[in-house]
Amino acid sequence: MTVPQSVRIGPIEVSPPVVLAPMAGVTNYPFRALCRRFGAGLYISEMITARPLVEGREKTLKLADFGSDERPRSLQIYGVDPQYVGEAVRRLVGEGRVDHLDLNFGCPVRKVTRKGGGAAIPAKPRLLETIVRAAVAAAAKIPVTIKFRMGIDEDHLNFLESGRIAEDQGCAGVTLHARTAAQLYDGHARWPAIGELKQALTSIPVFGNGDIWVADDAIRMVRETGCDGVAVGRGCLGRPWLFRDLADAFMGREQQAPPTFGEVADLMVEHAQMLVDWFGERQAMLSFRKHCGWYTRGFRSSARLRERLMRIQHFPELQEALADIDRGEPFPEHGHLVRRGKRSGTQKVVLPKGFWDDPDDATPPDAEEMVSGG
Question: Which residues does the record give as FMN binding sites (predicted)?
Answer without folding.
Answer: 22-24, 76, 147, 177, 233-234
